[in-house]
Amino acid sequence: VVVVVVLVVVVPASSSGSDGSTTTTTAAPSASPTFSSNVAVLDFLSSRSPDGGAALQNPDSIQSRAFDWLSDPAFNPQLSATPDLVQRYVMAVFFFATNGTGWSASSNWMTSADSCTWFTSGTSSSVCDSDGLVQQLNLNRNNIMGTIPPELSLLSNQLTLFDVTFNRLTGILPTELGLLSKTEVFLLAGNNLNGTVPSALGQLSSLKQMYVDSNNLTGTMPTQICSLLNQSLQLLW
User: Fold this and answer.
1) CA gap 100, 79 in Å, rounded
2) How does pLDDT run across 146-201, given as a tens digit for each residue?
3) What pTM was computed for the model?
């Protein structure tokens, strides 16, 4: 019995230039995979959620409502494992958690439009970065009521400004907000927030401005936050 082994070597395609040089062509990176089912989307979001996806499993939760919207092809025709999918989910959760239908203005929110075009109270033209990731969530003086959802922390690698001043927010400040490592401006003044300021906010290493005055907060400002005054923090109220 004779066994013949054939060794095949695959090399990148190359071409020769007019000057005799050789150019090697490599394949472009593949696009993020598109989910084949809503179950796959649910698993993807659950693995990133602050509670491990527990709220997503509750059909009456705001997280479940946000997932139902995200799964509707009329608003999100193609879902893939990208940061844009995560930010659309987070913004949908925020909308439902703060009675978005009662906001003073909410144009483009919860539509199929690019989330970079969703209403903002700010005047900046750079709501998103060059990759289409939302950097500024500015909804001050917009009749927002309800609570701040911990899912906001999923924007930790992109959100630089969060401004919800002079609204009607209630409840406590989620400790998960301390994960917003890119946030430079954090403005919550003029609401009805209660409880204490979580020491976890001392992890906001990029913070430059923080306003939490004119709320129903109790206790003292954590030393972890005050220590930021010796680093990046310039204004603290």
Assistant:
1) 23
2) 999 999 999 999 999 999 999 999 999 999 999 999 999 999 999 999 999 999 99
3) 0.84
179's tokens? 């994960």
Please say whether the beta carbons of 85 and 114 come within 8 A. Answer: no
Both tokens of residue 213?
A: 């005055």
- Regarding beta strands 22-25 and 13-16, do their DSSP bridges make them parallel or antiparallel, or are they unpaired? antiparallel
Decide: 161 and 185 in contact? Cβ < 8 Å. Answer: yes
C-alpha torsion 165→169→172→178, nearest 10:
-40
Q: How many residues does the chain have?
A: 237
In whole angstroms, give the CA distance from residue 44 to residue 38: 10
The amino acid at 170:
T
Q: In the structure encoding, which two tokens stand for residue 158, read together? A: 């992109």
* DSSP symbol at 115: G
Report H helices in 29-177.
38-46, 62-70, 83-97
HSE (CB half, 13 Å, CA atoms) of 81? 15
Which residues 6+ apart lie within 8 Å of 191 measured at CB?
164, 165, 166, 167, 168, 169, 170, 214, 215
Closest CA to 176 of 156, 205, 196, 158: 156
Sign, CA dihedral 230-183-198-103, equals: positive
